[in-house]
């Protein structure tokens, strides 16, 4: 009799544990359209990061850009975030423009970002340009200025840029 109770309790724990962290349901998001790595827990972390980054308390609208990149929009602002996973541990790489906004002295809406490689991005806006390097591991990735801020002499420097997926 004790053995059957023990087995029943073990089965109940297995059912509870199987739902932790991997749920693919959320009231506002169709995860089937949001890439293979996103689940409810990761989406909640993205919403929290984007709300803080965009200084937006209203509901954000997600858009899947491909290759584990997501655009979050709300409060007349938007940010591009990348989900990076290594050995089952995943974390969000913040929008490089959040850092560049300060370094270039230029509003985020006028900044354009271009991926150079997996860990490097170039940002242009307000007639300036700079290169950034992503430092850190899966959790705690930060963008660090990796060049001097220079004047942008490209022909597109006079126009306001839109965010490019990183």
Structural description of this entry:
The chain is α+β, with helices and mostly antiparallel strands and 166 residues long. It is 24% helix and 32% strand. It has 3 helices and 9 strands. The strands form 2 sheets. Strands 5, 6, 7, 8 and 9 form a 5-stranded antiparallel beta sheet that branches. The chain has a 4-stranded antiparallel beta sheet with strand order 1-2-3-4, sandwiched between helices. A hairpin with a 6-residue loop joins strand 7 and strand 8 (142-145). The radius of gyration is 20 Å and the shape is globular. Residues 3-21 and 158-164 have low confidence and may be disordered.
Give the structure's gist in a few sentences.
This protein is of the alpha+beta class and 166 residues long. The chain has three helices and nine strands, in the order H-H-E-E-E-E-H-E-E-E-E-E. The chain is 24% helix and 32% strand.
């Amino acid at each position: 009799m004790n053995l059957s109770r023990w087995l029943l309790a073990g089965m109940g724990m297995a059912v509870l544990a199987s739902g932790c962290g991997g749920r693919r349901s959320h009231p506002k998001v169709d995860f089937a359209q949001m890439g293979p790595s996103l689940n409810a827990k990761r989406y909640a972390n993205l919403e929290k990061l984007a709300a803080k980054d965009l200084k937006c308390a209203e509901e954000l609208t997600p858009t899947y850009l491909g290759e584990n990149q997501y655009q979050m929009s709300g409060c007349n602002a938007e940010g591009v975030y990348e989900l990076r996973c290594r050995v089952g541990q995943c974390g969000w790489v913040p929008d490089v423009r959040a850092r560049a906004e300060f370094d270039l002295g230029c509003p985020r809406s006028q900044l354009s970002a271009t991926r150079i490689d997996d860990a490097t991005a170039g940002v242009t806006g307000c007639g300036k340009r700079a290169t950034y390097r992503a430092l850190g591991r899966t959790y705690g990735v930060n963008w660090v200025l990796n060049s001097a801020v220079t004047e942008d002499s490209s022909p597109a420097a006079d126009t306001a840029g839109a965010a490019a997926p990183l």
